[in-house]
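Entry type: protein chain
Record version: 2
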Amino acid sequence: MTVPSCVTLGLRLVLWTCPANCDYECQHIITDKRLARDPPMIQPVVQFHGKWPFYRFLGMQEPFSVLFSFLNLLAHRNGLERVRHSIPSTYSLRPFYLAFGYFGLASWVFSMIFHTRDFSITEKLDYFAAGASVLYGLYFSVVRIFRLDRPAPATQSILRAWTVLCGLLYVAHVTYLTAWSWDYTYNMAANVAVGTAQNLLWSWFSIKRYRKLHKLWAAWPGMIVAWITLAMSLELFDFPPIGDVKSALLRAVEPYPVPTGKKFSYGTAGFRMKADAGLDHVVFTVGLVAAARSINRNKTIGVMITASHNPPQDNGVKIVDPLGDMLQQSWEGYATALANADGDELVAQYEALGNEEIFDDQDPTQANRKAKVVFGRDTRASGPALVKALKAALDALDVEYIDSGIVTTPQLHYLVRCLNTQENPAKYFGEPSEKGYFEKLANAFKRIMKDRKPVQGHLVVDCANGVGGPKLRELLKYLPTAQEGGIDIKVVNDDTLNPDILNRDCGADFVKTKQRAPKGFQAQPLERCCSLDGDADRVVYYYTDASNNFHLLDGDRIATLSAIFLADLLQEANLSDKLKLGIVQTAYANGASTNMVEQVLKVPVTCTATGVKHLHHAALRYDIGIYFEANGHGTVLFSDRAIETIKKEKLTSPRQKHALESLGATIDLVNQAVGDALSDMLFVEVVLASKQWTVENWRGTYEDLPNRLVRVEVPDRSVFTTTDAERRLVTPRGMQDKIDAAVALYQSGRSFVRASGTEDAVRVYAEAQTKTECERLAAEVEKLVKDFGA
C-alpha cells in the first residue's frame, strides 16, 4: 500500500518519524475503506495496537485523551489548592490529603505525555504513575477509615507497617513489569483488585456511618464510589458505542439463550420442533438471517412462524425469498450455524455471514442497504412469544418490518412476492395486503367461472381448526354465493379459539395418513369433501361412496386433474405446440398416475427427490409446470414466456378466445409463489365445473395400484444412499440388484428404499397389480433392508 509519508517539521518536533507517520496514515486509509464497505451492523472501525484510530491534532496522537487528562489535572490542582487553604496545618490528615493530590497530579501529567506520543518509556511512566495513584488511594482509605493518623503509639506502629507494606507492594509491582514481563492483563488486574478493595472499604464505611447518623451526607463516600465505579467501567470493559450493533445483538439475544445439548438444522420446512425446546432462540437467529438476506438481495424477505400439520405444542419458522419461494439452499447452512450459536459466537457467525454474503467489493453500496422483512404466524398459542423474539432480533439490527399478524403460509408468501414486484408493472403480482389476496383469487375465480356452472351439491371443507378456517370464511365474502352461481361451501373444524385442538383428528395430514374422514365428520355419500392442514398450504379431497367406502383424492389426483384441464385448454387455444406442459412427481407418486399422464395425456413427467423445493425448481423448467406431493402440497407454475404467449396469442375463434381467457384467469387463480390450499381448492372446483364431473368421475380417470409404505429401523441409516431421484440404491452394494429381481416377479411391480432424514430408519415403498402381490413385494424388500442394514 502506498501512502504519503512526508513528516512536517511540526510533527518532527513532537517526535513523529516516517515509520510512525506511515503507520498512522495506513490506519486511517484502512478504516476509511472499511467504513465505505461495511454496514453499521458489523462494526467497521477496529483497533490498531490496542487503540482506536483517533485523529491527531497538533501532533498529539490522542488529542481528546490529552484534553481529558489536562482537565483532570486542573481538577486535582484545584482540589489540592483548596486543601492547602482550607485545612489547618495542624490537622493530622492534611499531609495524607496533600500526598493524594500530588500522586493524582503526577498520574495525569504522565497520562498527558503518553497520549501525546505513545512510546515505550511514556507508556511505562503512565502505567507506573497510575499504579502509584491507585495504590495510594487504598493506602489513604485504610488510614482515613481506621484513623491511623492519630498519634497513639499503637496506631503509629500500625501506620508504619502499613506504609512499608504498600511501599513493598509497589516496588514488587514495578519490578515484575520491568524485569519479568510487561503484562497488560496483569497490570489491569492489579489495578482493578486494588481499586475494588478501596471501593469496598468506602462502601462499608458509608453504610456503617449512615446507620449510625441517619444523615444523607454520611452516605456520600459510598455514592461517590458507585459513581467512580460506573465511570471506570467504561475503560475497564471497553464498551463499544451505545448504538453499536454488536452490543445491541448481545443485549437482545440474552433472553433467548441456546439450549444446552440441542442441535438445530434448517430443513425443507425450515426449523420445526417443540415450541418450548429453544425455538425462541432459533426464531431470533432466523431474524438475523432474514435481515442479511434482505440486504444481499435488496428485497423484502419473509419469515413465517408455523408448524403446518404438526401437533399444537410444536411450532417452527422458515424464511421466504423475494419471489415467495423458499430460502435459497446455499443459505440454509448460515441459518443452521446461527441457530446453534450464542453470545460472542453468535456475533462472530453473523459477521462471517456478512463477510460472505453482504460485503461486495464490486458494489460497496450493497452493505448500506436497508433490510426489510415481513412476517406472520399461524394460530398456535406459542406464536406471540416467538414473534416477540423475532422482533427483538429485527429491532437490534434496525430492520424495517411489517407484522402481518395471523395469516396462512401461502398468504405470507403472496405478500412477499407482491412487496417485491409492486414497482414493476411487468412482474406485478397483486396488492400486498390480505384484501388484495382475497380479491385476486375471487376475481380470477369469477372470470374463469363466467361461462361454467358449478358442480351440484355441497363442498364440505375441514379447516383442521387452524388459520385456514377464518381465512376461508373471509374469502367467501368475496366469492359469489351458491344462489349467485358460486360454490356451496360448508366450513367445518374452524375453531381457532382453542389452540389445543389444532390438527387433532382432522386436517389434510390426518386424512392422508389415516385414510379416513376427520373424526365426527358428517358428510353424505358422494358429497365432495376436502381437508386443509394447519397453515392452509395443503389440501386433499375425498368422499364416501354409496357403500360407505372411503376414497381419497390426494395430491397425485389433483396433479392429474390439473394436467387434464390444462392440456385441454392448450389444445383449444392452439398452444399445444408452443408451450410445454409437464408434471413433476416424486418416487412416492402412484405408478398408475404416472402411466395415465405419460401414456394417456402424453404429458411428460419429471421425477425429483422428495421435498417441495426440488419439485418447485423442476416445475420451473416447463412453460407450465404442475407439481403436487401426495400430501396435497403443490401448485401450477406459469413461466414468463407462457404468460406472455397467452396474452399475445392471436384470436381465430370464440372457442380459442374462451380457452385463452381461462388460461389467463388460471394464472391468477393458482398461487404462483407456493402451494396454497385455498387457491388449489378453488382450482379443483373450476376443473370439476368445467368437466361437469362428480368426485366419482374424477376418481375414475385411473385406478391406483395397490401400494404399501413400510418403516424399518436400522442401526445406521447412512448406509443407504440413493440415486435417480431416490428410486435406486447406490449402497449397500448389491442390494439394488436384489430389489430388481424381486420386483421382476410381480406384474406392475415397483419398489424403492429411502433413508429417513431424521431418524435411523428407512422407508420401503412397494406397489403391484394386486394388494396381495403388493404386500409380498413389500415384505421381501423389507427383509432385504434388515439383511443388508444389519
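Comment: The CA atoms of residues 207 and 513 lie 71 Å apart.
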